[in-house]
Amino acid sequence: MATNAEFPPYEYHDGDAVVGIDAEIAKAIADELGMELEIEDIAFDSIIPEIVSGKADMGLAGMTVTEDRMQSVDFSNTYAKASQKIIVTEDSEIASPDDLKGVIVGVQLGTTGDIYVSDLEADGTTVERYNKGFEAVQALSQGKIDAVVIDGEPAKTFVAETQGLKILDESFTDEEYAIAVKKGNTELLEKINGALKTLKDNGTLDEIVAKYIKAE
């Protein structure tokens, strides 16, 4: 499994171990299929190339299904819903996605936040790309950029750890997470989808998510 362990609560480091929702789901899938799980922590924008090259069998990294990504890899059925949220300073005049036009927005390189915010460049928005989501949040805190667009759950974690920031109520986008596999590897894809169905039906998926995300 290829991932980027800078994305709490889906994947992050606990000492030397990679833990989180995706790590536990991957382990549950491996157990269901009688396979051994090995987790590789790499840059987010290297995950799909790693799968395409055959160095990784699957990618779990809070990855959204997009048409562009589907040209390179195949995706499993959805296992989680998510949204892109906007982080700003508490005194910011930015109040909605429309206000991102013409300002400087930080994103994590290669994420859907990067993809969607890049569409605003035609409206005068400057996109600053960072290898890690927290680096974008730090830049916001230091006044180097005006906002950050990133997935909702990591946004909550980053804002809780950084004074003076807030998350806007209105989402930038809504999306779904799925597991990436090498294009044409239908055998593995069918096994993963079968395991996901079992884990959903027996409540394991909900139990894993509930460990990390408390109901609001």
TrEMBL record:
<keyword id="KW-0732">Signal</keyword>
<dbReference type="Pfam" id="PF00497">
    <property type="entry name" value="SBP_bac_3"/>
</dbReference>
<protein>
    <recommendedName>
        <fullName>Solute-binding protein family 3/N-terminal domain-containing protein</fullName>
    </recommendedName>
</protein>
<dbReference type="InterPro" id="IPR001638">
    <property type="entry name" value="Solute-binding_3/MltF_N"/>
</dbReference>
<feature type="domain" description="Solute-binding protein family 3/N-terminal">
    <location>
        <begin position="1"/>
        <end position="216"/>
    </location>
</feature>
